[in-house]
Design brief:
Blueprint lengths: L6 H4 L5 H20 L1 H27 L19 H21 L4 H26 L4
């Protein structure tokens, strides 16, 4: 007994050129992923730098009135009296650095620089942790 519906209408057949086109697109996608892996890492590291920089700015502004707080940055130290100027300085410097890093995001030296800055900011976050939660607190 023959079915009412032709199976060729339900199950489409793939033509040879469609399979070739799919392999080519997958190859292009894989090449793009390999090529932009460094750029993705740089974007993520710059995002981390922004997050820790905002963290540092907020804690600097909140701790500036404490007696034990000492600003280590000699450029930012005189600006503690003016929080707007300090915020403008820190945001401006991070913006300028981010623009340079993102402009050259596909270069190995840029990624190395991003890792160095991210490690320095990680150390800064650790210093804030010790300041607020360390021994003697």
């Amino acid at each position: 007994m023959k079915p009412d519906v032709d199976t060729a209408e339900i199950i489409p057949t793939r033509s040879p050129w469609a399979a070739r086109r799919q392999r080519r697109l997958l190859g292009h996608l894989a090449a793009w992923l390999r090529r932009s892996a460094r750029a993705r890492r740089v974007f993520l590291l710059v995002a981390f730098i922004w997050i820790v920089s905002a963290f540092d700015l907020s804690l600097t502004l909140s701790a500036r009135h404490e007696d034990q707080f000492i600003e280590v940055n000699p450029i930012a130290r005189p600006m503690l009296a003016s929080p707007e100027t300090l915020a403008l300085l820190k945001v401006g410097l991070v913006t300028l650095g981010s623009l340079v890093l993102l402009r050259f995001r596909r270069r190995r030296l840029t990624e190395i620089g991003c890792w160095a800055v991210a490690l320095a900011y990680g150390g800064l976050a650790g210093a804030w942790w010790i300041y607020y939660f360390g021994p003697g607190r």
